[in-house]
Specification:
By secondary structure, this protein is an alpha+beta fold. About 20% of the residues lie in helices and about 10% in strands. It has one domain: paralog of FGE (formylglycine-generating enzyme) (Alpha-Beta Complex), CATH 3.90.1580. A 4-stranded mixed beta sheet has the order 5-4-3-6. Helix 2 crosses helix 3. The chain is globular, with a radius of gyration of 16 Å.
C-alpha cells in the first residue's frame, strides 16, 4: 500500500463491494428529500452538533450551476454529510485500504487503468473546463473491478483518519469520531494529474465543504 509499499500490505479478512460511481447530485437529492438533514439518527454526535450550530440544510454548492447538474458528483459535502448519507443508505464510507485496493489492484498499478498516464482517462485541471464531469464519463479510466473516476473528477472522502503509514486498520484510524483529520483519495478536476495516482492521499478536516470533494460508498 502507498508509494513503494511504504504503507505495508493490504489484507482483508472479508470481501467488500465498492460503488461503481461517485455519489451524484441525483443520489444525494433523495437523501435530502427523505429528511436526511432533519433526522439525527443518520448523524454522528459531532456531525449533528456541527449541522445544528451552522444551520446546514444542503451541500455548500447546491445552487451553483457549475456543480449541480443531476449526474455530476455531489460536492461541497463535509465528511459528516457523507457519513450521514451512507448511514441512510445502509452502507459505509470506504476505508483508505479498500479505496486503494479497488483503484490499484493486486498488480499495484499507478493509475486505475495501468502504469502510464493517459490524460483522456481522467478529469483533471488540464481538461476539466473548470468543473467536474458527469460521473462515469471516462469509461477507459475504469479500474480492474470496473469502478469509474477513482482517478480525477473529485476527491473522495474515506472513513479513515489521516495518520502516518504503515496502515494498520486496528490502530484506531478507522474509528468514527468527529474531530480527526480524514483521508481524501483520488485527485480532482482542479488538481494536476500527479495527484490522481492510486497512492495519492490528502488530509482534510471533517467540516471541509470544498467544490472538489465528493465521495462514494462501500459495503461488506
Amino acid at each position: 500500500m502507498g508509494f513503494n509499499g511504504v504503507g505495508g500490505r493490504q489484507c482483508f479478512d472479508d470481501p467488500f463491494w465498492i460503488d461503481k460511481y461517485e455519489v451524484t447530485n441525483t443520489d444525494y437529492a433523495r437523501f435530502m428529500e427523505a429528511g436526511g438533514y432533519a433526522d439525527p439518527g443518520y448523524w454522528i454526535e459531532d456531525g449533528w452538533a456541527w449541522l445544528d450550530a451552522y444551520q446546514i440544510t444542503q451541500p455548500e454548492h447546491w445552487d451553483n450551476s457549475d456543480f449541480n447538474s443531476p449526474q455530476q458528483p455531489v460536492v461541497g459535502v463535509s465528511w459528516y454529510e457523507a457519513l450521514a448519507y451512507a448511514q441512510w443508505v445502509g452502507v459505509s464510507l470506504c476505508t483508505e485500504a479498500e479505496w486503494e485496493y479497488a483503484a490499484r489492484g493486486p498488480e499495484e498499478l499507478v493509475y486505475p487503468w495501468g502504469n502510464e498516464l493517459i490524460a483522456d482517462n481522467l478529469v483533471y485541471s488540464g481538461n476539466s473546463n473548470g468543473q467536474p464531469s458527469h460521473t462515469g464519463s471516462r469509461l477507459n479510466g475504469a479500474s480492474w473491478v470496473g469502478a469509474l473516476d477513482l482517478s480525477g473528477n473529485v476527491w473522495e472522502w474515506t472513513r479513515s483518519e489521516y495518520r502516518d503509514y504503515p496502515y494498520i486498520m486496528s490502530d484506531g484510524r478507522e474509528a468514527i469520531n468527529g474531530y480527526a483529520v480524514q483521508v481524501l483519495r483520488g485527485g480532482a478536476w482542479d488538481y494536476p494529474y500527479q495527484f490522481a495516482r492510486t497512492t495519492s492521499r490528502l488530509p482534510s478536516f471533517p467540516e471541509d465543504r470544498r467544490n472538489d470533494i465528493g465521495f462514494r460508498v462501500c459495503r461488506s
